[in-house]
Amino acid sequence: MAATTVRKAPYKDFLQPALHRRFSSTATVLLVVSYIQAVLLDSWSSYLWGWFPLGPAGVRTAFIFTCGLAILVLRIANYHVGLRTTGSGFQTLRTTLLRLETYETLFWYGFSSLLFCNVFLWAVPASANLSWITYFSGDRARLNEKPLFLMAYLASCAITQTFNHYRKDTDGLVLGLSKANGERPSDSLKVVIQEVPRIFADSFAGALSAIPVAFVLYYSVLRSFAWGWALMFLRIFYNLPKTNMLPPTWPSDLFLLGRCLQTGALIHFIWHTGNFAFSTFMVKEPLKNGNPLTSESKDPNGSLLNGLKSKKLSIKAFAMWELAYIAGGFEARRKAIYEDIDRQDGPMWSQVYAICMEVVKSIETRIDEYGKVPEASPAKPAAEPKQRVSAPLKDDPIFNNKPAPSAVRTEVEKRLSQIAQSPGSSPASKLSPIAKKTWKEAKDRVLTREQQELIAPEHIKGSFEQRVIKLMEVDAIAALFQVDFRTQFAAAVLGTPYAEPTLCINAIHVLCQLSVHSLAEDQFGNVHRDVRSIIRTLTSVIKKLEDFRLSFPIHWTDIKSKRESPEVDKVVNALKTGLGEVVTKFEPYTNDLRLTLSDVRLAKEAAAKKGEMAEVR
């Protein structure tokens, strides 16, 4: 009988259930916040129905929870890992406005805010004067404009929140690093609870910033349109005036603005809590009951390899994170990697080594290719023109009664064509030497030296840059047009449009930890053959990164001019720490590894921190 083959379960079969559990935790936090807001919105005319979940409070909770759930579904559809490295804020804004996902985000924030508006209007007491119909003299009904302004205000909240959503890159997830053996994973719920004061402050600030947007949006764009449609709809149910004339006064008094701030703070609190809880729970460690996610697989190494070879960055990053945990804190799984030598595509260690080295060498590749002009694709050979069978068509005008162009027009067209064909040249550049000398003498007679310096192109360019640099001190302008060193350097080293440093850091951790532990656990001695290559590669990458940082140009709009990039700094620190551990452990075996004294010396210099450089030398 043929032996049954073990099915290699894909890595996503273990990652997706973990992400579903984390989504459930986020939804639970959001449900608790929704219930608290539903209780706070009650009029408390009855002490039982004000909090009882099976009454009006429960219905309000369901609607408020729907407001937050719409945002969570949006986050699932659009999340990504890594730092956004698309350039200046203006470039990001232009790219964002051309994407369909932007308007999808605006739609769901708008749906959430308008649904919350109806919940709020239903919950507020009659004394708030926010009912749709009011009665003035006798029993004649009139449309109340205040709910319309409140809806416009909440629509403004959706617009400003969508803007901030992309400005702060809310869809980005920041993955963590493997912790030392025995260190407890972080408590995500505790992190969310500790962040509540900041979330409340941000919610109030967001509600306040939407008020000027609401004034512009409602009184300049929506007022007459919303008033007419509201009258048309409510005339079906009420005896309202036939005219659509707008009220002579504005509805936005201080009491209404206070209600707007209250409503805006509540809906922003739902949004901020949902977004922060999602970003916190979704990046929990890739562990289940204290063990790696793939521990329950029939082929743990095969499932892990499937994730490491994934083309989707998020899946590959999670798989590398899990492998980093295995390399540092799970001895049984480490030994399984060393002993797994009968795989179809090669031993487990060889495949892990190739994947991690590819990630590390990609840094070196990006540095080497930075600034190079991409090679043009080879031009297709031009097709030979077919021979004419008939005489060419005449292109003479049918009615030849058009006057010939004037000499002035002909001369203008000629000059314009010359400018178009040689845009970099000026009329003065084509003057003869005698004409240039005459022009210089005339300029010296008319203008003083100071005046000539003022109109010089270099002076005009310098004064323009100085004025722009002063404008860059304003945060709003800098956010749009400043090109900072951090983003550009991270893009050059870690890639674009998103730079994920934890993928590189965990890959370095895997290589170094598996190498160090192989001295005691690798029975077949497969790892030591690659230690020399690991040491030389890490040394080369560190050297290139440090030289590249010093030579990397700082954009003239970056007024701080600091060569700092926290994401790249973390990668450099991981490279130095890992290289130092490997060199320390394998230095007694340099002859067996065929490492020269120069290799060891260069590796020690590369691994040394700033304070240790003098001691190494």
Summarize the structure.
One of its GO terms (molecular function) is spindle pole body-nuclear membrane anchor activity. By secondary structure, this protein is mostly helical.
Any overview of this molecule?
With 617 residues, the protein is mainly α. It has two domains: 12-281, no CATH class; 297-370 and 483-616, no CATH class. 63% of the residues lie in helices and 3% in strands. The protein contains 24 helices and eight strands. It has helices at residues 12-40, 56-78, 89-97, 100-123, 146-167, 188-194, 196-234, 254-281, 300-308, 313-329, 331-339, 348-369, 407-421, 433-446, 449-454, 457-471, 475-481, 485-494, 501-521, 528-551, 566-586, 590-593, 597-607, 613-616; strands at residues 80-81, 83-84, 133-135, 141-143, 172-173, 287-288, 291-292, 498-499. It has a two-stranded parallel ribbon with strand order 1-5.
